[in-house]
Structure formats: structure tokens, C-alpha cells
Design a protein that fits this description.
six-stranded antiparallel barrel, Ribosomal Protein S8, Chain: A, domain 1, 3 domains, four-stranded antiparallel β-sheet, alpha+beta, flat, 8 helices
Length: about 375
């Protein structure tokens, strides 16, 4: 079964590589500047708030274990003119209430009265937020100011049921949900478009070659000398002073096509999941690799004296890996080793140390 599993894993890798080879054979497609870079200063702002959800079907917080839920309810009721005696407040058992954290992104150029989506997440021991209603919750920014107010019914993309004896079934996650257009913007965040006569584009990744191509594309289409490279990630562009003309100018720039430079050769390895991903610029130098598997089998028995431990090491084999000039050649060479993704981590590290792997090896 182990060998069959390995074969299946590498069959998937080979099929994926064949599909990737077809993609690599196609001509390089240009990308728009709006997909490569962002305008400096034009960004989202994170908002956060603490709120209460009501109307749950006995799936809320156990208030005896979440005192912050009880405290929030008492404070809310007092603001609404309902004052509970101290001895009664400590005995609240409201299973249809849950304390949640509310988060949202305030888009750039948002105006007062605009609606934005919010996400609510349980911070207590509520079993489900399905069917609940979020009460009015102020959403604050990093400066402590209130920028939006959230309220509305929570949409939870899951379902669950339980029966006597502890049997239960659940589909997807029930302790978090969203409220589409659930918050109203109450304060405006100033978003300047550029600094004085210039605007700055910032690439998502550092690449001197791509920056140079962005500069060439802007100067070729918009006018010579308008764009200048600041460093390996930023481009400065002279823009019109009139705001209407500047918006039209930036709209033309962000739709210009640029052929990006090939990315740096990189191999990403996740040892927790056994995932190994490499891009098309990874190559191998000729090398020899010895690979063998060590397996330990512990035999179970009712009598401890009869239990046995067997250790077996498969015969090692030395394979000559030829130099590969493409991703398909690299995967073909590694497939010849017969290693699963977990074994591949050690092999790639050894290849990198020996100078045979022409790529940056990153473990996440």
C-alpha cells in the first residue's frame, strides 16, 4: 500500500508537470500594471469592534464560563434603561447570546453612508452563530476612532445537528460568519492620490528588471521622462496637477501591459503537509544521490512478552541525476529517486548543500 501511495503521488506530480509544460510552451503573457503594482497611499484600513449576537437557538455562550459576555449584556441593558439588581445580574443564563469580535476592511475613498461587509467571529464557547443578529457595534481604527457602525443578521455557511448520547454532525465552520453590507461608514479616511506633482507605484515583489520594464512602458505610452525608477520596487511618475486629469492619467497607466521578468528560482517546502512546490526557473546540476528508506514495525500482541519490534532498511541505491534545464526535467529526475514528498525535503536540502539545486530553498 505504501508503494502504491507513492506511485499515485508521483503520478499526480507528473500529470501536473505535463500540464505546466504546456503552459510554459505558450508565449509569455503581458500583465497590466494594476496587477503588478499598487498606488502608494491607496490602501484598505482595518477596523475592529466587540459586539453581542442575540437570537441564537440555545447555541450561545455559557455565561458562567464567559464572564465578559455577562458584563457586556449588563452594560448594554443599562444603556437602554434596564438596570438589573447586582444579585440577579450574576445569575444570568442566556444561551441565546454570544460575544463576538467584528472585523472589517475600510476601502480607500470610502464616503460617509457607504456600506461595507463585516466578519463576526465567536470569542467565547458558543456552539453556533447560525440565525443570530448582531447588535449595533462600533468599529474602530488603529487610532481608536469610530469609523463605522455594524448591525444585522449573520450569514453562516455551515450546518450542524446533535442528538442524545453525544452524537453530532457538523458541516463547515459554525462559529464565524459574515454580514454583507452590514456596516455603515461614519467617518472618512483621507486618501491622497500622490505627493505633490508625483505619484508612486509600488510593485508587489522586488524585481529590478520588472521595474525597468514598467518605466519603459509608461514613458513609451504616456510621454518620455514621466516615469523614473526609485529602487527595485518603486516607480515615481509625474502626474497632472488637475485632479480630474490626474485620475484619467492614472486610469490609462494602470491598464498598460508589461511583460514581467522571470521570477527567481525558488522551491517552497512545507514539511507539515509534505507539499513541495517549485517554479519554472528551477534547474538541477548533474549529481549522484543515494536514497534508502528505514521502516520500523511494532507488532501488537495481547501478551507483552509476545510483542515484537522489527526494524528493516531497504537496500540503498545510487542514482545519477542528470542536469535539467526545465521544470519537467527536474521533476522527472526527482521522480526517478522514488521518494515521497517527505523524503524529498531531505534530498532537496542535500542537493542545495552540494550546489546541485539551482534555486532558493524555502521551508515554511
Amino acid at each position: 500500500m505504501r508503494k502504491a501511495g507513492k506511485g499515485l503521488i508521483w503520478q499526480v506530480v507528473i500529470v501536473s508537470t505535463a500540464m505546466l509544460s504546456l503552459l510554459l510552451a505558450a508565449p509569455v503573457q503581458a500583465e497590466r500594471i494594476k496587477d503588478l503594482a499598487s498606488l502608494q497611499g491607496v490602501r484598505n484600513n482595518q477596523l475592529i469592534g466587540y459586539g453581542i449576537i442575540v437570537g441564537l437557538d440555545n447555541s450561545g455562550d455559557q455565561t458562567t464560563q464567559t464572564p465578559f459576555t455577562t458584563q457586556a449584556i449588563i452594560n448594554m441593558l443599562s444603556q437602554l434603561g434596564v438596570n438589573l439588581p447586582t444579585d440577579q445580574a450574576s445569575k444570568l443564563q442566556l444561551k441565546n447570546v454570544a460575544a463576538v469580535m467584528v472585523t472589517a476592511n475600510l476601502p480607500p475613498f470610502s464616503r460617509v453612508g457607504q456600506n461595507i461587509d463585516v466578519t463576526v467571529s465567536s470569542m467565547g464557547n458558543a456552539k453556533s452563530l447560525r440565525g443570530g443578529t448582531l447588535l449595533m457595534t462600533p468599529l474602530k481604527g488603529a487610532d481608536g476612532q469610530v469609523y463605522a457602525m455594524a448591525q444585522g443578521g449573520v450569514a453562516v455557511g455551515g450546518a450542524g445537528a446533535s442528538a442524545g448520547g453525544g452524537a453530532s454532525v457538523q458541516v463547515n465552520h459554525l462559529s464565524a460568519g459574515r454580514i454583507p453590507a452590514g456596516a455603515t461608514v461614519e467617518r472618512v479616511v483621507s486618501t491622497p492620490v500622490g505627493q505633490g506633482a508625483y505619484v508612486h507605484y509600488e510593485l508587489s515583489t522586488t524585481d529590478f528588471g520588472t521595474v525597468q520594464r514598467v518605466v519603459e512602458a509608461i514613458n513609451r505610452e504616456m510621454g518620455a521622462g514621466l516615469a523614473q525608477a526609485v529602487d527595485g520596487r518603486q516607480v515615481r511618475v509625474r502626474a497632472p496637477d488637475d485632479m480630474n486629469a490626474r485620475v484619467a492619467f492614472l486610469g490609462r497607466i494602470e491598464n498598460l501591459d508589461v511583460k514581467v521578468m522571470p521570477a527567481m528560482a525558488k522551491v517552497i517546502v512545507n514539511p507539515r503537509t509534505g507539499s513541495v512546490v517549485m517554479n519554472q526557473t528551477v534547474t538541477l546540476e548533474s549529481c549522484a544521490v543515494a536514497h534508502g528508506n528505514l521502516s520500523v514495525v511494532v507488532g501488537g500482541a495481547t501478551d507483552v512478552q509476545d510483542a515484537g519490534v522489527e526494524m528493516k532498511q531497504e537496500s540503498s541505491k545510487i542514482l545519477s541525476v542528470k542536469a535539467g534545464a526545465s521544470l519537467a526535467d527536474v521533476v522527472k529526475a526527482l521522480n526517478a529517486l522514488g521518494a515521497n514528498p517527505m523524503d524529498l525535503l531531505a534530498i532537496l536540502q542535500a542537493m542545495k548543500a552540494a550546489g546541485a539545486l539551482r534555486a532558493d530553498l524555502e521551508i515554511i
